[in-house]
Amino acid sequence: MKRIVVSGGSRGIGRAIALRFAREEFAVALFSRRKEELEKIKGELEAAGAAQLIIRQADASRPDEIRSFAETVLEAWSGCDVLVNNVGIFEPENILNASEGALERMMQVNLYASYNLTRYLVNAMPKNGKSYIFNICSTASLKAYPGGNLYAISKHALLGFSRGLREELKGKLRISSIMPGAVLTDSWAETELPPERFMPAKDIADVLWQFYECSSRTVVEEIVLRPLSGDI
């Protein structure tokens, strides 16, 4: 039985990834802070054919809840084969006029949650070249932009974490940094832009599956995905 852990897996890109791997009969473990969304994704994963499920409510801004989730996974499965560090938040903040605590909140969720979850689980992942850690970064990991500069700081940091992890685990685990542009998720629910200006979350999930299916001799270190018409 293959096992995948997805942080922030109840909606958007995380949901699409969990469902994609469930259709391949993976056991799926995920957490989200929204209880009502967890109930919905549980039914969807069961219908998709997930071998087993671990569904937990947890807040990525609380290190103790990340640790508790990891302990639940290790107790149930003793480890995992795929880890997707997907959880993240966005606040429209710039550096010089940022609200109090905005950077700290985004760093906690967008970097430290992934850093801590990885450290809890990585030693229990098979070191056979087939296991995989996907870090869902962003095009903001490469370029800052007005109205999102604090977010860009946190996503630059996540890419740095991913690159460092790749160096430390060469020859043991595969590590990919995934940098999508605008994806049609709930974050864009109020937009007046047409759906055609966004990538579907399913496309990101399909890319991860294709990377996983490569042989243990190959890893895609970094990939940038953007809407066909370019950034928004």
Number of helices: 6
Low-confidence stretches: none
Q: Which whole number gives the mean pLDDT?
A: 96
Spatial strand order of the main sheet = 3-2-1-4-5-6-9
CATH fourth-tier homologous superfamily? NAD(P)-binding Rossmann-like Domain
Please, how many domains? 1
CATH fold node name: Rossmann fold
Fraction of residues in β-strands: 15-25%
CATH class label: Alpha Beta
- Fraction of residues in helices? 40-55%
Number of strands: 9
Classification by helices and strands: alpha/beta
- Give the CA-based shape: globular
* Radius of gyration of CA atoms, rounded to a whole number: 17 Å
Distance between the termini: 40 Å
CATH architect. name:
3-Layer(aba) Sandwich
Main features:
single chain; about 230 residues; alpha/beta; Rossmann fold; 7-stranded parallel β-sheet; two-stranded parallel sheet; 9 strands; globular
What do these coordinates show?
The protein is of the alpha/beta class. The protein has a single domain, classed as 3-Layer(aba) Sandwich (Rossmann fold), CATH 3.40.50.720. 40% of the residues lie in helices and 17% in strands. It is built from six helices and nine strands, in the order E-H-E-H-E-H-E-H-E-H-E-E-E-H-E. The chain has helices at residues 12-22, 35-48, 63-77, 102-121, 149-168, 201-213, and strands at 3-7, 27-32, 53-57, 82-85, 132-136, 174-180, 183-184, 199-200, 222-225. Helix 1 links the parallel strand 1 and strand 2. Helix 1 (12-22) packs parallel to helix 2. It is globular, with a radius of gyration of 17 Å. It starts with a strand and ends in a 7-residue tail after the last strand. The mean pLDDT is 96.
